[in-house]
Recover the amino acids of this structure.
């Protein structure tokens, strides 16, 4: 076991002690919430009640960094939020706070000078204050509308100085607040996708209509058209799709013809190339093609492509008329 010098704790020993101490602090907070949920419930109601406002999160130093993460979590799960540096606030940035806002102020001691300086102007503006602090008797706690008490605790720092256990508890409590508010708002996976369009989950939760080929890029082929003409029509379609959608006189989808079908056709015996090209495309098309609706999740289309080992799926309306085509290349373009 590696040591810095004789008598000091091992690296592993110190690391596990820090993790255990921070985990224990979070467990104590969970037990405290189970004993008295009133303040937390009040905080949830304040956030939900700020329908026209935002949650403005502020804190100094390490608490401010934790606050920035809490604000980001709130914003990404349906609660408008921004961060406000307390020192900058008293030099003009207080203009970001509106009467309908809720200010979430983080300070372990509750006596941070920069946070205390914010209280009077926030009160004059009319915004509500939720204090996340280590007690109920501090200046911050006394002037807050709601106090989320993380309790007194020893930091996990060997010197007992660096914010460690306290900031871990603040972060966990902030996550708890954000998740409860998210659930109360009925925030769905689809809602999450709208706020995370560049993320993998957001991309999988796109709608088919967002990525399908349509309009002039839609390769429609009339029933009975000779295969030769159908191939030319498919080739002239912008984007050169790897399939053509065959429709009857009423515009309904009756089949699909893909590049793979063309290869398999020329591998067959018994017909000349000319015979195959001059025959109606109906003789070669695949019947009963797989379809999706434009409102379906792209994730569902991916499942169909995968399960049936196909590269294209037709997008149809309620009358089974093709309005789009989803090609596996389109999914690669959006990194799905």
């Amino acid at each position: 076991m590696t040591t810095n010098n004789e008598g000091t704790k091992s690296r592993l020993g110190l690391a596990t002690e820090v993790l255990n101490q921070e985990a224990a602090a979070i467990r104590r907070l969970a037990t405290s919430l189970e004993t008295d949920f009133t303040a937390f419930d009040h905080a949830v109601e304040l956030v939900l009640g700020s329908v026209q406002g935002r949650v403005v999160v502020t804190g100094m130093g390490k608490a401010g960094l934790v606050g920035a993460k809490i604000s980001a979590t709130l914003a990404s799960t349906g609660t408008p939020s921004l961060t406000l540096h307390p020192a900058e606030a008293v030099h003009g940035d207080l203009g970001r706070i509106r009467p309908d806002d809720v200010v979430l102020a983080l300070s372990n001691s509750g006596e941070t000078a920069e946070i205390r300086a914010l209280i009077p102007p926030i009160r004059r503006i009319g915004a509500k204050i939720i204090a996340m602090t280590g007690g109920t008797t501090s200046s911050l706690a006394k002037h807050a509308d709601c106090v989320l008490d993380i309790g007194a605790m020893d930091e996990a720092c060997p010197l007992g100085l660096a914010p460690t256990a306290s900031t871990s508890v603040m972060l966990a409590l902030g996550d708890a607040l954000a998740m409860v508010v998210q659930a109360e708002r009925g925030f769905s996976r689809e809602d999450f996708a709208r706020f995370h369009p560049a993320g993998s989950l957001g991309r999988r939760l796109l709608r088919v209509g967002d990525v399908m080929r349509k309009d002039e890029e839609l390769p429609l082929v009339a029933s009975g058209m000779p295969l030769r003409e159908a191939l030319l029509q498919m080739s002239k379609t912008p984007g050169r799709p790897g399939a053509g959608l065959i429709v009857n006189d009423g515009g309904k989808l009756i089949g699909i013809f893909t590049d793979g079908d063309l290869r398999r056709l020329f591998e067959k015996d018994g017909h000349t190339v000319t015979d195959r090209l001059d025959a109606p495309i109906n003789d070669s098309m695949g019947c009963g093609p797989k379809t999706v609706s434009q409102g379906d999740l792209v994730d569902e289309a991916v499942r169909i492509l995968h399960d049936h080992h196909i590269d294209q799926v037709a997008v149809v309306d309620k009358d089974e008329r093709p309005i789009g085509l989803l090609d596996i290349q389109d999914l690669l373009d959006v990194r799905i």
Q: What stands out?
A: The chain has a mean pLDDT of 89. The two ends are 45 Å apart (CA to CA).
